[in-house]
Amino acid sequence: MSSDHTIWVAEHFIGGHPALDFSNAVFDRRNPPAHNELFNSARDVGTWLLAAGLAKEDEAGAVAELRDHRFLDEVREIRESSYELFNAIAASEEPPSQSLGLLFSSAARLLQTRQVGWDGTLLHLSSAQWKNPAAVSAFFAQLSIEAFYTLPRARMHACPRCGWLFVDTSRGGKRRWCNMRICGNREKITRYRSHFAF
After folding, report:
1. Which of 79, 121, 146, 178 is most buried (most C-beta within 10 Å)?
2. Alpha helix (H) ranges present in 52-116?
3. Per mean pLDDT, which range of 29-38, 66-75, 175-184 is the poorest?
């Protein structure tokens, strides 16, 4: 596990929905580097929630201080199930029922045992619940479940270069890259170099 903390920037939040940004929380899906993980600690999870606008500073701080050794593994497992689900949709394939089942079971563990609030279709955790690893895991699972049922499937795509997911909200529906300044430009450079390679 890396001791470095992830610094979240605007380029990490290009998905068009927090569930897709959550699914994208690795460096690269297509060609993963040796250190591909962006959730290296509970602190990374807490700061991600703050940067995504899903938690207030004190709530994110409570998540950052979680010491349950299973918490990070659960968040990553939920993230990977979310990615499998949305990547299948982006590829016009049948969403894997096992991935959806894991999300439902993660959310159900909290819903069956505790009273929770709702902010529209999303879980609303109390201050105390942000200190509960199971509640935070359930929050992520419910976030992805909500996106599964509400996002426009025909507009969901995966970047052909890095594999990050996004909802194409462009007027003509022609968006190809997660970020034109990053993957779009890198693709242009690659093509330029290959054109002049001997």
Report:
1. 178
2. 57-64, 69-90, 97-111
3. 175-184
How many angstroms separate the CA atoms of 188 and 198, rounded? 18
Contact present, 19 and 142 (Cβ < 8 Å): no
Longest dimension (CA), the chain: 66
For the entire predicted model, the pTM comes to: 0.89
Q: Which of 177, 119, 166, 179 is CA-nearest to residue 19?
A: 166
Q: Mean pLDDT over residues 18-35, rounded?
A: 95
Helices (H), ranges, the chain: 18-23, 42-51, 57-64, 69-90, 97-111, 133-150, 185-195
Question: What is d(CA 124, CA 29) in angstroms, rounded to the nearest whole number?
Answer: 30
Domains of the chain as residue ranges with CATH = 10-195 (1.10.3300.10)
